[in-house]
Amino acid sequence: MKKGLILSASTGAGHNKAAMAIKNALHEKGIQAEIIDSLKFTGSAVDLIISRGYEKTAMYTPKAYGKVYRLYDDCKITNTEKKVSMFFAHMKRRIKKLIATEKPDFIIGTHPFPLMAVSTLKKKGAIDLPLVSILTDYTIHSTWIESHIDKYIVGDEFVKQLLIQEGVHPKKIHPYGIPIEKNFSKCEDCSIKEELGLNDKFTILIMGGSFGVGNVKKALCDLLDSKLDFQVVVVAGKNQALREKLEKISQSHEKSKDIKVLGFTDKVSELMSFCDVLVTKPGGLTTTEALARQIPLIVPYYIPGQEEENLDFLLNNGLCLKTTDKYSLKILIELLIQNPERLERMRENLKLVSKNDSAQQIASMLDEMI
């Protein structure tokens, strides 16, 4: 049986979700794949510093994260060996041993750090395997660009153009879309709607990512100032403190609006299937899931860096609205409720950009390559 390695990392949930979607699509083709969290695999200290460091920085000092992101991108460090020797020499050694043991037919990376390591091994002749990079945002960063990557899978033709501008050969780039699970392109039975006791009225879904980043509390309070009739579902992710704050708001406000507060849930696809608007930060996977569900977005918060650039992509394609000091979330929601034709226009734009079968296309491509 053909088999491969999918190298991911837990800096947010998106890289692992993309990896799982690809693994499932490969399984349908009869191809075995193992997902490796490259940071945990390298060592607990590396994982703690990078994964947990990303989480805490994104939550408490997002501007600092944005500065580091831009600084490293602006450096345009194209020498792979320098990048790897600075941070990931140990990762390279561990991955080399893993490849020797598992003997995969191909390697996929959904995070740039392990791709740096594997690209170096290819350059030195230590391995000779197809190497596929899965960009999980609607933008590029210098860390993704490596000379020994055979294929780049990107979310849109816009991103393909950015890679070409940085010198990547067009034949290497495939704008299949960011891979997500198949259930986001299926019709759901909406049983969760009944379970939550929601009515058939305008419904707003508020999310802040897997660990509840962004001023979700402010977003909810802003919506509650509106006199219009709608209901709200808020997902706090793994942030228990945020969930408790949201529940207090839900319990204390005047019962003019139905509010349902959830923690971490695997029912996002079902929630998106019946909600009318998604209020969220523009993470790559969340954005792709919204595209598949054709649910218009409003972005009141984002992590500077790749999410800021994802927002540029959304705005350039007419897929979202962005709050400002004057255009508050309350005003934008009221605008969409009172002007449903604008909401429908956004849905049509989402339909044009949506790519729902990326994982299946990746699996077919790999089946032909190996």
UniProtKB/TrEMBL annotation:
Some GO term, biological process aspect, for this entry: which one? Answer: glycolipid biosynthetic process
Q: Name one GO cellular component term.
A: membrane
Swiss-Prot/TrEMBL keywords: Glycosyltransferase, Transferase
Q: Matching Pfam families, A to Z?
A: Glycos_transf_1, MGDG_synth
**What are the EC numbers?**
2.4.1.-
Keyword Glycosyltransferase recorded: yes
GO function terms (MF aspect): hexosyltransferase activity
* The Diacylglycerol glucosyltransferase N-terminal domain, residue ranges: 15-180
Q: Which SUPFAM superfamilies match?
A: UDP-Glycosyltransferase/glycogen phosphorylase
Question: Locate the Glycosyl transferase family domain: which residues?
Answer: 212-350
Query: InterPro entries, alphabetically?
Result: Diacylglyc_glucosyltr_N, Glyco_trans_1, Glycosyltransf_28_UgtP
Q: Which family does it belong to?
A: Belongs to the glycosyltransferase 28 family.
Q: What is this protein called?
A: Processive diacylglycerol beta-glucosyltransferase UgtP
